[in-house]
Specification:
Elements: E1 2-3, E2 7-14, E3 30-37, E4 39-41, E5 53-55, H1 59-92, E6 106-107, E7 110-120, E8 129-141, E9 151-152, H2 170-186, E10 197-198, E11 202-203
Parallel strand pairs: 6-11
Antiparallel strand pairs: 1-2, 2-3, 3-8, 4-5, 7-8, 9-10
Helix pairs in contact: 1-2
């Protein structure tokens, strides 16, 4: 699909032996995006060249990167869910319907996949081969639309929306800023989501 600053992205399909009732992998041959971290390998005689090849990390270096990113997505989904819990309780306790629509968005569905290889342990037994991790992958749901629909709403170094008041999506960016305030207050100032980006329905 493409190459970002830190990961390559490829089309893929996911089939789980025990699929969930909804979400990623809920149907056979579920279309997904397969991502994997990389580093740039430049020619030795031209280290500043624009030409480079894709280099992969060792399993020891790759696994922590993937687990860290998956963990960030896990916490982001929880923090966004916290905001909607606050909103839903406020609506339920209101004496009359609210006079505006509240955006309902979610973070991209994702999961980790590990590829294993068999290695002979040297023990002369039927089950003498140990399964070793060969590579790791971050699996994500396919987002409808393309780059034209992608918007960066709030930068991670500025609490104000990146969009101007007259731009489409500004009201949504204000809503995302509101979610940051709720997260900050409800966690006692410990954490909030920054660097909001995505579409009007899916964030990542």
């Amino acid at each position: 699909i493409g190459i970002g600053r830190f990961k390559t992205a490829h089309t893929g399909w996911l089939t789980l032996m025990l699929p969930p009732t909804s979400g990623l992998g809920s149907r056979a041959q579920h279309d997904i995006v397969v991502k994997r971290p990389f580093h740039k390998v430049y020619p030795k005689d031209a280290p500043a060249s624009l030409d480079y090849r894709i280099g992969r990390f060792s399993v020891a270096d790759e696994s922590p990167k993937l687990f860290r990113e998956a963990n960030v997505l896990y916490w982001a989904k929880a923090l966004l869910g916290l905001v909607y819990d606050v909103i839903d309780r406020a609506i339920a306790g209101a004496s009359e319907p609210i006079p505006f629509n509240i955006p309902r968005v979610h973070f991209v569905e994702a999961g980790l996949a590990l590829s294993y290889c068999q290695q002979d342990t040297g023990v002369k037994k039927p089950a003498s081969k140990a399964a070793l991790i060969r590579a790791g992958f971050l699996l994500e749901e396919v987002i409808d639309g393309g780059d034209a629909d992608f918007v960066k709403y709030i930068h991670n170094m500025d609490p104000n929306p990146l969009l101007d008041p007259d731009e489409f999506g500004y009201d949504f960016a204000l809503f995302l800023a509101f979610t940051q305030h709720v997260q900050y207050v409800k966690t006692g100032g410990l954490v909030f989501i920054s660097d909001y980006q995505g579409t009007h329905f899916t964030l990542w």
